[in-house]
């Protein structure tokens, strides 16, 4: 039933993404109209460590968070009432949200006793006892005067299983009723329900069904971000956003890593909070579009530019990394200056995200955001061979992962497929009549992506991971040159003999990285050599494998799909050719002419240690001119691989761990490919 009072919160959606559940809205509160999606800095005890409220205003911060448990303990209800609430007490004239104190059940569990009546805490600062009941939580929050209050909920660790999870969910519903009854200022302060149920979808559904009938002003997704796997996290967030009322704000509690916020926005979340940007600042870590930087590192002593050149915050306008490096550890103001920048970055990220949704350009925003993260991750993984191919281009490389999990904890099958979006051979320009072959270098990426999505659509009971490194290979003075030596992820050195043999460099690092998943089978597929087309023509896939069993499985699958595979030799002769270098551990191209596809496979074998590995060279079949069962004519030139957010909620659930979802036109054709047939059998 609708409440008899006038709502203190008005939520109006003003724009939606056509490719996801992301939305931009206005949330009107007594002290502020808040633009959502929004990140809320955490001022646990009535302040953000090291910052004045006026400095938050300078950052255009619209809402901050306080904690009921801490504020109820110190300064306490009497002092808050004396000042008429926390707004006046801390001189903050904008919106406030208060947590109920329930999270302390987890964080201070050794100091807490949970019963149906409430939670009995032993205050860590003086040992005194505080009984926090739903009624007491409401009384404290009414005294604080927060624009948004959270119900007291029964919080258990997200890793908890068994009857305790259901008990906590049901108790949270009962405590919500007690909070509603005890709420003394419903026309001035909004109350949010908190959805519980752990990682159990049925419990989450039941909780939403029950709490939605209470018709609160908003809803929070609680009990997450506590050590669970990311795929479980996305799954629960996606489920809750689908089921919660469209006309109320959705708040994902305790979530504030930039990547998590971007993905959760795509799933439909409106509000976030986290101590991450302020806590990391106190340890000398700054946030940037390219990732985090540790300003304590000695290299920043001689970097005279600001943390972020295009940032307009006080810190970046006034101080260099060198200065911050100098004062970190010696002056407390260092933490304040880095905190200012980190909050400016987080709030700016949300502003850009909101604008992209309003412009219905959110997939492009996600692509740009992920690309920035990818380069730092690729560098951290020390994928020097992969990076060497991209170093001549102004476009950053991208490393996609697709995880499909439908077989518990069993070892996965890993597919690797590289894509080069514009391939000129590094320092050479191919003639225009070879443009189709250049586009064909997307073939491996295309086959891996489409195969995994087909498997997901058909719900096959298997665990599969797709690894898809993408980059450009542009001509420039920065491109790799013959004679250069690069270092792969496994620290093997590679002498560059031919800059047009760049695909194997990309695959080398991806294959090595694939071993981190302990795969039972590893298969890479690539348009690697023109030689395979010369040797086998345009209708046969050259297959190299260190496993007779795997080869037989692939061959039978190819017969069934109508795509013929031919086994090619992995002779030690070819391996000697690619390791015959005085400058490095191996050569990317043999000095001896001939056997191009065989030496390419031998090179890749230097980065493989699993016993079930196969390399599929589709250089011939991808350059075909006739229709064959799963490759329409001109596939390499006319099928566009787009990086975008999926408009299919089912697909989002099935591929919950994707950095991106890849939408591939004509996926049905790939269902009859030998890769898919191999998986089905």
In short:
This protein has 681 residues and is of the alpha/beta class. Strand 13 (250-252), helix 10 (258-267) and strand 14 (271-274) form a beta-alpha-beta unit. The model is unreliable at 426-440 and 626-673 (pLDDT under 50).
What does this molecule look like?
With 681 residues, this protein is an alpha/beta fold. It has 27 helices and 29 strands. The strands form seven sheets. It has an eight-stranded parallel beta sheet with strand order 4-14-13-12-11-10-6-5. Strands 17, 18, 19, 20, 23, 24, 25 and 27 form an eight-stranded mixed beta sheet that branches. Strands 1-2-3 form a three-stranded antiparallel beta sheet. α21 links the parallel β24 and β25. The longest helix is centred in the middle third of the chain and has 26 residues, at 333-358. The protein is elongated.
Keywords, please?
elongated; 29 strands; 681 residues; alpha/beta; single chain; 8-stranded mixed sheet; 27 helices
The profile of the biggest β sheet is:
8 strands, parallel
In percent, how helical is the residue content? 25-40%
Task: Please give the count of helices.
Answer: 27
Oligomer: single chain
Return the structural class: alpha/beta
Secondary-structure blueprint:
Layout: E1 10-16, E2 23-29, E3 32-36, E4 38-41, H1 53-58, E5 63-67, H2 68-73, H3 77-83, H4 86-90, E6 95-99, H5 104-107, E7 112-114, E8 119-122, E9 129-132, H6 134-144, E10 148-150, H7 163-182, E11 190-195, H8 201-212, E12 218-221, H9 230-243, E13 250-252, H10 258-267, E14 271-274, H11 276-282, E15 285-288, E16 291-294, H12 314-318, H13 321-327, H14 333-358, H15 362-380, H16 384-390, E17 398-405, E18 413-416, E19 419-423, H17 435-439, H18 443-457, E20 463-473, E21 485-487, E22 493-495, H19 503-514, E23 521-526, H20 530-536, E24 540-545, H21 548-561, E25 564-567, H22 572-578, E26 586-587, H23 596-605, E27 613-617, H24 635-638, E28 642-644, H25 649-654, E29 661-663, H26 667-670, H27 674-680
Parallel strand pairs: 4-14, 5-6, 6-10, 10-11, 11-12, 12-13, 13-14, 18-20, 18-23, 19-20, 22-26, 23-27, 24-25
Antiparallel strand pairs: 1-2, 2-3, 7-8, 8-9, 15-16, 17-20, 21-22, 24-27, 28-29
Helix pairs in contact: 3-6, 6-7, 7-8, 8-9, 11-14, 14-15, 16-19, 18-27, 21-27, 22-23
